[in-house]
Amino acid sequence: RPAGSSGAAVPGRLATSQQGGGKGKRAVAQPLAASAATETPAPAPVAAPALPAGRPAVVDAPRRRGGRGAGSGHAAWKSVRQERWEGALEVEGELPLWLDGTYLRNGPGLWNLGDYGFRHLFDGYATLVRVSFRNGRAVGAHRQIESEAYKAARAHGKVCYREFSEVPKPDSFLSAVGQLATLFSGSSLTDNSNTGVVCLGDGRVLCLTETIKGSIVVDPDTLDTLGRFEFSDKLGGLIHSAHPIVTATEFWTLIPDLIRPGYSVVRMDAGTNERRFVGRVDCRGGPAPGWVHSFPVTEHYVVVPEMPLRYCAKNLLRAEPTPLYKFEWHLESGSYMHVMCKASGRVVASVEVPPYVTFHFINAYEETDEEGRVTAIVADCCEHNADTSILDKLRLQNLRSFAGQDVLPDARVGRFRIPLDGSPFGELEAALDPEEHGRGMDMCSINPAHVGKKYRYAYACGAHRPCNFPNTLTKIDMVEKTAKNWYEEGTVPSEPFFVPRPGAVEEDDGVAISMVSARDGSAYALVLDAKTFQEVARAKFPYAMPYGLHCCWVPRNSNAC
Ligand SMILES: CC1=C(/C=C/C(C)=C/C=C/C(C)=C/C=C/C=C(C)/C=C/C=O)C(C)(C)CCC1
Ligand SMILES: [Fe+2]
């Protein structure tokens, strides 16, 4: 964590330097003594202002230029109203006293610029949410990440960089060659880091998206944007996996090569900014690499997925999105799983597998024989039955227009088995009956002590049907092949993030924390006992919170995660 960032709030620091002028309440200059770390009673919640006058107002009405969209819908799909807020949260139930640290959640929380509404869930500007727990109390906050893309959009009142589905309206007549140049130099790509948030081994907290320039360091206490994470190496690349594998000592990621289809596997030591090239996987099919939103590792291997949903340079350039956005489906190209040895960079297996669509790998581990030799890799993921339609379902118009129809495509825990004996094929099967979790499955976490190792439990979002989006929290038992489900009518819960109890021995000794947005506009951090999957407490925000994607846990008073 950067020097001076202690985990305790600094008494006397102001909640905001902005003065009100927008539609929200005016700023009240109030000491930020709200952290439970200060031992002082937490003050009442203070609303920060909406955007300052003269800048495009952030509105919560879902509409595109020229008219309102279909219904105002659920609070989860409405833009956050204020740029920032911090205050004590009302706690219902008993927060465990050992829960001492900060839960951070990142996600695209702002989908409107003035009266212009974005199309897709993944387009929104990044909103970081914080809940700090101490002594059974909770302090909440949220803040927009100050990416160049967000600041430019605010300053000019329009999209200025290429987002997931939005592209800037050309105001100069760049030739096709010019457009291509801005794409391949990366200058037109967004740095809107609205997807992941990770705590590095050295304590720095990094927000991520799929562009490398969108790796942004934030202060977990103030939620200040500290600046771009500059990689000091010469590896280059424009895009990488949104989900690096981060441990106390290292950081692994994949860099797809769109010119010569393949992936670079790279590793960075904690405490440095220098990635080192470990090895390369050449694609086996298709005109471009498969989309790698995430990938898993085992103790000795990196697993590189190559799915038939592939990047598409033509679609990257398009002004109007296709149903598959920047990607293309190439069933004929085959589906593969590659395995690289972490130590040598050698590809030790490359197998063809049944077609699959996944965004999130859950975990992977090695299977060994009686002599301890590794015979196969098992890799689990949230698998969408090789159906890409989930991407279109995540258009905001679809999410906002739910009227009781069951339209969420089925998903399952897909379990790959990749033999290491030179066989050309691997297997893919459901790890448990998908009915156990309502045939919805995404946004997963596990006990971090089990990353790359044999594990039993995963926490994810499942479905209580009919629904148009995952609306339950589910604990999957991979051994018993059962699930425990949490559901509350009208709510949209985000990724349940597992936080182990310090000193825990059992894999599920801890809590699962999820930010829940309710239809009535309430929002709360829900704390479930990870063993029983029963609610132990909820910490309520005094305002509506949009849906968000991924989370991390920053333990208190530690300079490392
Ligand atoms: C900005 C550019 C890109 C951006 C890619 C992004 C922001 C990808 C984000 C992907 C996410 C958040 C995937 C999450 C999936 C969640 C699912 C399927 C949940 C399902 C629920 O049931 C590129 C596309 C890389 C191109 C360059 C510019
Ligand atoms: Fe993700």
TrEMBL record:
Coiled-coil blocks: none
Sequence ranges of Low complexity compositional bias: 1-13, 31-57
Note on how the cofactor is bound: Binds 1 Fe(2+) ion per subunit.
Region (Disordered): 1-76
Cofactor: Fe(2+)
Domain of life, source organism: Eukaryota
GO cellular component: chloroplast
Pfam families membership: RPE65
Swiss-Prot/TrEMBL keywords: Dioxygenase, Iron, Metal-binding, Oxidoreductase, Signal, Transit peptide
Binding site for Fe cation: H243, H293, H360, H550
Example of a GO biological process term: carotene catabolic process
GO terms, molecular function: carotenoid dioxygenase activity; metal ion binding
InterPro entries: Carotenoid_Oase
UniProt family annotation: Belongs to the carotenoid oxygenase family.
Descriptive protein name: Uncharacterized protein
Lineage: Eukaryota, Viridiplantae, Streptophyta, Embryophyta, Tracheophyta
